[in-house]
Design goal:
Rossmann fold, four-stranded antiparallel β-sheet, 193 residues, single chain
């Protein structure tokens, strides 16, 4: 079976054509790939504002995300909430992260295991603060759960987790089982042959 070249996804008030990427050899499944860095500033600004609106009444004091594709979304969510800072959990071990807090993770869109790193000098950005975790897409929940564990270890009070899109999978249930509210701007399927 062949898969379509693209899938029209509704992300809040916006519709975007996402490329369909087959998985496996031969491919039995395919994902609809949202690369936030491939969309314009106006798209991310609108999506960030609409995502922020879903959490506006939660008294958010801090916004956090995981590198890399959640960064532009987190910037716009923070801006829309009037917060002049955001925290990025990094995935590459830079020289200044030698004693960073760390959490292992796996992701449906990345090969092999990875680690999230939180610079100890940035603990004050979330410690004791009502923190909103933001990312591009939730699927299995592996990245988000690792991020939430790391943020809690840093002393953050996790208020919610917001995503542009929710892919079919166990991610939402896994995060909600941790007592964290999940809100998204849309849903995308995993296509099967």
């Amino acid at each position: 079976m062949t898969f379509p070249a693209s899938y029209d996804a509704q992300i809040g008030s916006q519709t975007v054509a996402l490329p369909v990427i087959p998985l496996g050899d031969p491919p039995e499944k395919a994902i609809c790939l949202l690369m936030t860095i491939d969309h314009g500033v106006a798209f991310i600004e609108t999506a960030g504002r609409e995502l922020a609106d879903l959490f506006r009444d939660e008294g958010i004091e801090a916004v956090a995300t995981a590198a890399t594709l959640g960064i532009p979304v987190a910037i716009e969510v923070a801006r829309a909430l009037g917060i002049d800072d955001y925290l990025v959990l990094q995935k590459s071990n830079k020289v200044h992260l030698g004693d960073a807090l760390a959490a292992d993770l796996s992701s449906i869109t990345s090969h092999g295991s990875q680690r999230l790193l939180l610079d100890r000098r940035r603990l004050g950005a979330v410690a004791g603060r009502r923190t909103l975790f933001i990312d591009d897409v939730i699927s299995t929940g592996g990245s988000a759960l690792a991020s939430l564990r790391l943020l809690r270890e840093a002393g953050a009070e996790i208020v919610g987790a917001g995503f542009l899109l929710e892919e079919e999978g166990p991610g939402r249930a896994a995060i909600e089982a941790e007592g964290v509210a999940v809100r998204t701007l849309g849903r995308i399927p995993i296509l099967t042959a």
